[in-house]
Amino acid sequence: MPSNVPLSHYFAETWDTRDGLPHNSVNALAQTPDGYVWVGTWEGVARFNGRTFKLFTRGVLTGLPDSGIRSLNVDKATQQLYVAGSRGGISVVERERWQALKPAQTMVNFAVRSGDGALWLALEDGGLVRRTQQGDEQNLLPNVSAYQVFEQQEGRIWAATNNGLYYYEDGAMHSADSDNSAITGAIYSLAEDRDGALLVGTEQGVWRYVNNKFTLLHNALADDSVSSILVDFRGDIWLGTINQGVFRFSEYGLEKLDANVGLPSNRILSLLEDNEHSIWIGTNGGLFRLRQAPFTTVNTARGLSGDYVRSVLSHTDGALYIGTSNGLNRYTQGQVEQISSPLDAPISVLSLTSSQRGGVYVGTYTSGLMYFDGQRLTTVINRDTGLPSNEVRALHEQADGTLWIGTAGGLVRMKSAEEVTTLTDKQGLPGNFIMALAQDKQQRLWIGTGVGVAFYHQGQFTTLPLREHFDADYAFGFLVQDDALWMATDRGLLHYDYQSHRLRKLGREQGLPVDKLFAVVNDKYDHLWLSSNRGVIRISQAHVMASLDSEDAQLEFTLFDEGDGMLSSQANGGSQYPAVRHHDDSVWIATARGAAVVDPAKLVRMASVSLPVSIESIGFDDEQGFLPNLDKTSLTVPSEADRLSIAYAGLGFIMPERIEYQTKLKGFDDNWINRGNLTLTEYTNLPPGNYEFHVRARYPYSEWPASAASFHFTITPKFWQTLSFKVAMIVVLALALFTLYRLRFLHLKRSEAQLKLRVQAQTRSLAEQAKAFEHQATHDQLTGVANRRAFDKWLIAHFEQAKQQQQPLSLAIIDIDHFKNINDKYSHMVGDKVITEVANLIHHCAPQEAMFARWGGEEFTLLLPGFSVHEAQVCAERIRVLISGHDYSALADGVHITVSIGVADSQGAQDYDRMLAQADNALYQAKQSGRNQVVVYQKPMP
Q1: What's 779's DSSP letter?
Q2: pTM of the prediction?
Q3: Pick from 174, 212, 446, 640: most CB atoms within 10 A?
Q4: Which positions, given as ranges, span the membrane (predicted)?
């Protein structure tokens, strides 16, 4: 179960008519056993799947006389939804089946079935009606307006009316004896707390009924009209009021949520707790939902001195220190303490590190290095007393007390106030702009700069070849492990193995969504957390290692952003520490709008939820989808339908955008197919037969559930697929052939001249067909460009010509990077579209005299007569840039295409085969060097 948090820590979301609600007054809320949330408004009831609303109004389908909905309640015994409202309309819903019941005389404020099977109807100006299962009715309170009926666990039934509180006993309603004016006045809502006590919402607060006595729940609510009461799974009491918003009574005391902090309106009409323990609030300004999102953010609204956070530090004393552009803060037990600045203005904090003396070293933007001893900040050293720059971005204290200070002007080693040494690029540093410091178990000090990474050991600097191998310059952060070092850089995540000294990269080319990573932090679940300008990435370290070891490994990760509770997806970097793992295993990230925190254990709990899946519609060809009665044995698909579309939804509301799906179609393919976040699956031209469709859903990184939503369907054969039609066609064809033969024979006998003309016409037709066949033999059917056979002829002819006339001839081989991943992730159809699109781009970009062909699979060749190798390289680079920058969103969401190109010329080749091998060798070098680049063949040095 999720741990309790203050009300301010919940993540809030709002929906109104702009998002699909039929009306902004949300009169009633309910969740049915299949997982849907139902929203009752004055313009109909909407069914919500986490992404879209489906509207139901008055009409034949629902049987409702009016669209105004006042009541939604699920019968615990039958799991059916009772929908009631204006003009006395009452209907029962089970899946897509609606059944209208006998309407009441006036508007139904509340309809609920009690444990004995009776239906209770609280009517506006119409009293309280009890309808038995046999259909007998009795108006027990004919002269009141009734608002709610509530049955306690012990079985007693209570009614809230405009004339006080009543209970049902011996076939009649009795007034609750009380001299309390709150109880004899208007009663709006009823509930039962975790101790079994009745809670009564009145015009004078909430009253608790125990041992025949009413006591006020909280004095602060004595003047508030309470319209709704909800007791959640913990026993916390949520109270909706007429004009004061929402209150929660819990271990945190009485907390308030109103329009000043985001509520659409202070008038609360309904409350609901869903299966995932989110709280839904119906107001007259829209639907509001509170949930424990993966992330929460500590910002100025919660006491932070500034929103722009550059550094976070988990201290040994249990506190978390947060450095902002407007001062230093200490965060303990949910409370923020701002640390006073000794200067005239607040300090801008860039870096933090713990001191062996128990305090915190604080690196600033303009004030040098400071020290916080737990009570006050003091200056340690600045530019006037020995620093090359007041801009201190990284700090590290060694076991012997030596303090390393990374500044914008070099690396400083401070053993004491009198022994300060500055090391710069003159002593071997790759650059003087220092952003990260860390020490491994071999006592090597790792330094991240603006132009690479080096380590300092035994008085010597050793620089790693990041730019040469990966085009990486900036190193923003380190994660030190026993056997390796992780580096967050401007070209992705780098891994350095201590033993083999091997450097490997995981970047955009391998599937990451961004280039720049600011921090890398691990958690107890073997996940790596990577901060970036586009959010925070969580990825399994095992998946990372698999991707580093194999290019074919599927990279799986989750990108968290504003939709997951972060106030800003822009994480900050270039300072120490941009992210940190706290002692409670939470992960903190410095962002542009506060310090964001995520509890990995919460995500594990979220992922353990088994999500229900609903098949929402089935459509044929271009017709609008419908939902048949799936309880039938089988759905029959008409034979004239060529395309079958199935829409479905995983009914999870914590992370609905991140729900992943798998589908399986028995009778066609018994394997589960990953659909990503797609909620629609289509099948085209399925052969006649019996099929069974299955779909299941999960949150990222959770296990796939064993159960799935499914239905059977049968595709009937088209008339020409039946056996009788095939037999008839054989007979007709035989007769036609015989008749044709007889007619042709007679015709030939009658007119030899006409025969000659026909022979001539046939000869011309055959010539045209031969020409067409020749074209097909030399051209690729998918792209329409020349194929390998044609290209081989070109290459042989032009190579000999180039040698004889001593003219340049160049060759480029072009390969689409990671093409297998495109087929695996999307489909072979998308892969074919990618090949065609790339071929079109190359064809239009290539010079007029060039000879372009599809070599095979995802490879293309470009023969450039008269082009030197340098000119060919320029041409190839232009093609690479065009393809890399092209927008492929029309093919599929998230598709990004790059190519690797190898170039060679005829000067160093004895024959055309050698020239082709050299170009292929250059292509191999381009792939090995990270892909998305052009490499010219270089003759090996002797």
Answers
A1: B
A2: 0.69
A3: 446
A4: 719-741
3-state secondary structure of 777: helix
What token pair was written down for 148? 């709610």
Give me the CATH topology for the region 778-936: Alpha-Beta Plaits (3.30.70)
DSSP 89-154: -EEEEETTEEEEPPPPSS-EEEEEE-TTSPEEEEETTTEEEEE-TTS-EEESSTTS-EEEEEE-TT
Architecture of domain 7-292: 7 Propeller (2.130)
| 815-828 tens-digit pLDDT | 999 999 998 888 88
Tokens encoding 533: 């300008």
Q: Write the single-letter amino acid at 937.
A: Y
Chain center to CA of 264: 26
In sequence order, what are the residues at sequence separation of 6 or more whose Cβ sits closer than 8 angstroms to the Cβ of residue 278? 289, 290, 291, 292, 653, 654
The CATH architecture annotation of domain 306-606 reads 7 Propeller (2.130)
Mean pLDDT across the chain? 90
Cis amide bond preceding 525, omega within 30:
no
Q: CA-CA distance, 309 to 18, in Å (whole number)?
A: 34
- Residues 471-500: tens digit of each pLDDT: 999 999 999 999 999 999 999 999 999 999
**What DSSP letter does each residue of 330-395 carry, written as one string?**
EEETTEEEEEPPSSSS---EEEEEE-TTSSEEEEESSS-EEEE-SS-EEEEE-GGGT-S-S-EEEE
- What is the full DSSP assignment across 505-517? EESGGGT-S-S--
CA 659 from centre of chain: 7
Phi–psi pair at 730, nearest 5 degrees? -65, -45
Decide: helix, strand or coil at residue 683: strand
Given strand 81-85, what is the order of strands in its sheet?
Answer: 69-74, 81-85, 90-94, 97-100
- Say which DSSP state 881 is in: H
Which parts of 141-239 fold into alpha helices (H)? 181-184
Q: Exposed, middle or buried by CB within 10 Å (0-12, 13-18, 19+), for 250?
A: middle
* pLDDT tens digits, one per residue of 827-860: 889 899 999 999 999 999 999 889 999 988 899 9
Q: According to the 3-state scheme, what is the secondary structure of 319-334?
A: CEEEEECCEEEEEECC
Half-sphere exposure of 751 (CA within 13 A, CB side): 10
Nearest to 168 by CA among 195, 190, 194: 190
Closest by CA to 901, choosing from 472, 799, 881, is: 881
DSSP class of residue 795 equals H
Enumerate residues 6+ apart whose C-beta is below 8 A from 173: 128, 140, 141, 159, 166, 167
Alpha helix segments (H runs only) across 29-127 = none
330, 486, 753, 759, 773 from 766: Cα distances, Å = 88, 68, 20, 10, 10
480 bridge partner residues: 485
Predicted pLDDT at 762: 74
Please check the confidence at residue 775 and state whether its pLDDT lies above 80: no
CA distance 322 to 344: 20
Query: CATH code for 612-716?
Result: 2.60.40.10
Burial string for 413-424 (b: 16+ CB within 10 Å, else e) reads: bbeeeeebebbe
358: region left, alpha or beta (phi > 0 left; psi from -120 to 50 alpha): left
Give the residue from 10, 502, 478 showing the smallest Cα distance to 289. Answer: 10
